[in-house]
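Practice problem: Leucine/isoleucine/valine transporter permease subunit
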Amino acid sequence: MSTPATRTLAPRLSAALAIFVVMAAVPPLALALDDPFLMVIASRMLVFAIAALSLDLILGYGAMVSFGHAAYLGIGAYAVALGARWGVTDLLAQILLGMGMSAAFATVTGAISLRTRGVYFIMITLAFAQMAYFFFVAQSSLGGDDGVALQARSTLLGLPLEGDQTLYYTILGALVAIYAGLYRLTLSRFGRVLKGTRENALRMQAIGYRPFRYQLVAYVIAACLCSVAGVLLANLTEYVSPAYMSWHRSGELIVMLVFGGIGTLTGAVAGALVAVGLEELLAVFSEHWRLGFGLILVLVVLFSPDGLTGLMRRLGLRAPGLRNDGEGRGDD
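Answer key — structure tokens:
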């Protein structure tokens, strides 16, 4: 029997499934068009969709505006470079290494950052990310500011990820798995407490919960998931650089959420695809593509503050036979 909750979630899940099906069709399309660069762009879209999903967990569901989230993207990338030097070439092992490094850094910095609120939280997360950035800049053995090129891509269960198509489907599989995991997490008791903390932390504390613990755990989970995107990005580019963890990159992740709709998992994925796609499309017409990108972002903020998900919801309400099921922010 259908319930209001299932009617609310069904369109979101259908939209996510449609996105995954379309992205799964990209390699055959690139082969048919004889355009391998299309698959490279799509791979980049999927990598940043994973990073945007991880940020959405703390920003959209936990109201923690981190301006240093890209630090974990860089840590994951450097896990590949360090793993290769230590003889660790398996992708899963490198992911575990990146997660471990990110979890350690996030636990310490998150415990400190979560003692603050508002703009202070934003600035302290930015400060910690810059510390990580300059730490890797100072590592001359890893190329310093110039970064380091990888000798080869990782292996997966003993099989090399040399082919672009193999790597592409590996990234897509990781995205689907992370989406499914976060979907279950946000619907669990943990996710509901996190959303309650977002709405009113004092009220959650009054009924017996300790918001700090839930927020810190979410912060660490988000860091670990973002490091997965970093591992995959390093394999995609076969290059690792401190630029991956710059504050500009953190800002780009926030922009992706704004495009898609903050607090919706499907919106995070769609926002990343649109943002990366717009970047590539506008760059074809002008080297000053950021001006057009900024104008589009302003229009989205002014006319559709809820991003693509809000726009689609409003269009759906105007269609015959469709109605509002009461879905709100963070109720993916």
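Discussion: The two ends are 20 Å apart (CA to CA). Students who identified this feature from the tokens alone can consider the problem solved.
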